[in-house]
Known about the structure:
75% of the residues lie in helices and 0% in strands. The protein is mainly α.
Amino acid sequence: MSWIAIAGAATVSFHATAVFLISAILPALIIMLCHKGGRRYSWKAVILNPLPVTAFIAAVFILMPEIPAKFEMSVIELIERTFAAMNTANPENLNMKDVFLLYFEQRYEIASLTVSLSPAFIYSSLALVVYVTEKIFYKIPSEEILSLPDFLLLIVILSGLCMTLTFMNLRTVGMNGIIITGTLYFMRGFDIVRYYMNRWRIVLFVRTAIYLTILIQFFFIAAVAVLGFFSIYKNPIKDGNSGNAEKSVKL
């Protein structure tokens, strides 16, 4: 069936075939290989899976600068249309108008920043998809916490240093790095929260409310990411069968 889909896409466009291969088949193969032989929860599937698509998008942006330019103009037009619609629909709502006026005046900067950070947004989105896929289809129990490699700490440090520099390209690299690593640490922190929700036997309604609150509030998203970051070398989860002994975590 996959070969039929590839052949059909090839008859339409070579670009469609490339996108299908990179965004569908290759990630599926990575997930399958990371779980081959009964291997369980692995950071490799989460971290490696988004790399092909992210690298492809980054290469397109570098080799074909007209594409990010069009994307930037689309963001600017979206902001302008939204502001015009607000003026038409709610001319008396001065508070909303004043708030959005700030975004309207900075629309060029916002559009440029959106394009610059799009590789991190794409990577993070795909990593979250793989994370949820593993949780649902591989039925990962709550006792298994996402273990992240040590080199991510180096990426966090280097990204933070890049953000302090005045050279804009390096600052952009640093911001992308912080978003990507922050997403990975958020997933680990969310695993820890999920573990305690199950261990304390929190009722489903309350548990769902807590999860939704975390996902829609930036403060809680950042707090969960910080929890995942500081639990790298010392796992805060205790093994219920071994008293106060801490579980060993493979990094």
